[in-house]
Specification:
The protein is built from 32 helices and five strands. It has helices at about 10-30, 35-55, 60-70, 70-90, 95-110, 125, 130-145, 150-170, 175-185, 190-195, 205-220, 225-240, 250-255, 265-280, 280-290, 310-325, 335-345, 350-355, 375-390, 400-405, 410-425, 435, 440-450, 455, 460-470, 475-480, 490-500, 505-520, 525, 545-550, 580-585, 590-600, and strands at about 535-540, 555-560, 575-580, 600-610, 615-625. Helix 27 (about 490-500) runs antiparallel to helix 28.
């Protein structure tokens, strides 16, 4: 389909993502980051879409669509998409990172009608990439709610099969093999768990695939416009997450043979390049340099995410990727595994590794969760079998020899993918590596599919059955996930707790499901005790979500109290919400010492469980002495 006709879904998505990201920065510069500004942006976007689609005749065949999903793997993908959509509709967003710093940063921006450097102890609000947030912002501006954020990931999930197929065949992989893996890749646990979520890890895989697909397609079409879409997708890839930046290497390798096409369209190419800069991570990197002195935003490595010795980075990330991707979708014996892991980590070799990789985590959960999910056991086992079986080289027929020759550029690009992963592993020291490398997985899989025996392997009935089983293993993941369970989890678990009061596993399940159910409004019980006339509320959190204090959205503003502004807020607010742990973490003082420092007093308290892996913590509602409003405030209840 040429650019003159109706845009393909992938092109539409790239265009929309680039348009709304650029619009976010422009509205922010004009101090119009609000519903009025986005109403104008939406009207302009619709007008541009109508102009782009004018004269097009979109093709749609219900019979062809029905035939496509009759086979088992496509039908399973369709089921996953429907279930993810239902989960997104039923549950408020509860992704922990999304609630801790991504959604709060949007609330702070909208309160000031612009992007700004936020005074907060939660530094990720400032230095993290903003790509996903600029796609969330229009939904928040026009709907005044967070309930539509999941649509960003639903759209991305629906685009995965087509882009996977189109990219794999352009890397030199046979159409038969590409057909199977276009449906298998989305069944990776990281993809199905985030399909109805506000996690910002897996949607970047779409931009990786699109950047390669359109760039490689330019060699066939001779169209500079294909390279432009590839450029935009590559920029959006880094704009989604800074840790995706090494993936620019395989994209650059794909670009080299066709770079001459850009010389014939210098002016539009320059404009597209400027747009790429705006939608990439570069603006945040520059702002990080301005405010912190380092492009990462954490030049002192306060968050312990940067690995100084690459050898320990490679070793630690390799261990995390192997152990996490070996976890079954349901693991009742996770506690036993974790105890064994903790004993192992007390050994001298692992202690040495931990000193250089402080955030190393090799634990399992009873259920796969989006915060740590990688490809998962299903696809990992299938890839392992495919690797060993695919290493067997069949007799080389002429057509197979031609296919191998055609795949040579693909092999170089896939090698670039492995080098990119090695760069990530050598420098990044996060405990969440299996999900953070979600955008890397397509190229890693493609490199295995280029093995000479894979084209014959996919014709074997045993391999087809194994592939179906691998994909099917994601079904319990999406149904049972604590984030959006598609069964009455809390009700059933509470009944089982009453029937089996001494069963630790049932108590654990009830606790986990309850925490996830309440996470979107975790501090709600405390918010109810704040007087309606208090339009500004202080918050002291350490890896805690302040979203509940902003509700109902548009009625109150939250000020993050940190060491840099604790003595500046006395005239602006009179109520502060803090936990004892957060005060110790932020101010290095006990609660009593800090209360004396700010001349405050506790007027209410409550005990809340906000993390499934933690314990209930004491939270305190504090009034500053500048105003006396303690009368009439009830003591806060206890939330379990």
């Amino acid at each position: 389909m040429t650019p003159r006709h109706f845009l393909s879904p992938a092109k539409v998505w790239i265009s929309c993502a680039a348009f709304f990201t650029a619009a976010g920065w422009i509205l922010s510069a004009a101090h119009r980051l609000d519903s009025t500004g986005y109403s104008g942006v939406l009207a302009l976007g619709i007008a541009l879409l109508i102009l782009a689609c004018r004269g097009a005749s979109p093709e749609f065949s219900l019979s062809k669509l029905t035939r496509r999903y009759r086979r088992a793997l496509p039908a399973l993908f369709l089921l996953f998409a429907v279930l993810a959509f239902i989960g997104g509709v039923l549950y408020a967003p509860n992704n922990y990172d999304g609630l801790t710093y991504r959604f709060p940063r949007i609330l702070h921006w909208f309160a000031n009608h612009r992007w700004h450097w936020i005074e907060t102890h939660e530094t990720r609000m400032n230095y993290s990439a903003t790509g996903f947030e600029w796609l969330m912002a229009p939904f928040f501006a026009l709907a005044g709610s967070d309930r539509l954020f999941f649509l960003v990931n639903i759209v991305s999930f629906l685009l995965l099969p087509g882009l996977t197929y189109a990219t794999l065949i352009r890397l030199g992989i046979s159409k038969k093999v590409a057909w199977f893996w276009m449906w298998l890749l989305p069944s990776g646990y990281c993809f199905v768990t985030q399909a109805g979520s506000i996690g910002n890890d897996t949607f970047a895989a779409v931009f990786l695939l699109a950047s390669l697909c359109f760039t490689l397609r330019a060699r066939e079409s001779g169209q500079a416009s294909d390279l432009w879409y590839g450029m935009l997708a590559a920029a959006l890839l880094t704009g989604a997450k800074a840790s995706n930046a090494p993936l620019l290497l395989p994209w650059a390798l794909a670009l080299l043979p066709s770079v001459g096409l850009l010389k014939t369209k210098l002016v539009p190419t320059a404009l597209i390049a400027l747009l790429c800069i705006v939608v990439s991570f570069l603006p945040i990197a520059c702002l990080n340099v301005k405010h912190t002195g380092g492009w990462t935003g954490d030049p002192t490595n306060h968050d312990k995410l940067t690995i100084e010795n690459p050898a320990f980075g490679l070793a630690g990330n390799a261990l995390q990727l192997v152990t996490r991707n070996a976890m079954p979708p349901v693991m009742p014996l996770a506690g036993m595994w974790n105890q064994a892991t903790w004993k192992l980590m007390d050994t001298p070799p692992l202690q040495t590794l931990i000193r250089h990789f402080p955030r190393l985590a090799l634990t399992w959960n009873e259920l796969e969760q989006e915060e740590a999910a990688g490809l998962g056991l299903g696809l990992s086992a299938l890839l392992l079998v495919t690797f060993f079986a695919g290493m067997h080289r069949p007799a080389v027929e002429p057509r197979i020899s031609a296919a191998i020759s055609k795949s040579c550029p693909g092999r170089l690009i896939c090698l670039g993918g492995w080098i990119a992963l090695a760069v990530y592993m050598a420098k990044m020291g996060s405990e969440a590596a299996p999900r953070l490398v979600a955008a890397y997985y397509p190229l890693l899989i493609a490199s295995l599919l280029l093995l000479p025996g894979v084209a014959h392997l996919v014709r074997a009935r045993w391999w087809k059955n194994l592939a179906l089983l691998a994909a099917f293993s994601a079904l319990p993941v999406i149904v049972l996930t604590p984030s959006r369970p598609l069964w009455p989890a809390v009700t059933v678990c509470k009944k089982l707790v009453r029937d089996f009061p001494n069963n630790h596993l049932i108590h654990r399940a009830e606790s986990v499901y309850s925490v996830y159910r309440d996470r979107a409004d975790g501090l709600g019980p405390l918010r109810e005790s704040i007087r309606p006339e208090e339009k500004v509320v202080g918050f002291v959190g350490a890896d805690d979500s302040e979203v509940a204090l902003w509700r109902p959205f548009g009625t109150r503003r939250v000020v993050d109290v940190s060491t840099s502004n604790q003595f500046k807020i006395g005239n602006e607010l009179s109520i502060v919400l803090a936990s004892d742990d957060s005060v110790r973490s932020v101010f290095k003082q006990s609660m009593d010492q800090w209360l004396a420092t700010i001349h405050g007093r506790v007027i209410g308290s409550g005990k809340l469980l906000t993390k499934a892996a933690g314990k209930p913590r004491d939270w305190f509602l504090i009034e500053l002495d500048s105003k006396d409003r303690s009368q009439g405030l009830p003591r806060l209840g206890t939330a379990q």
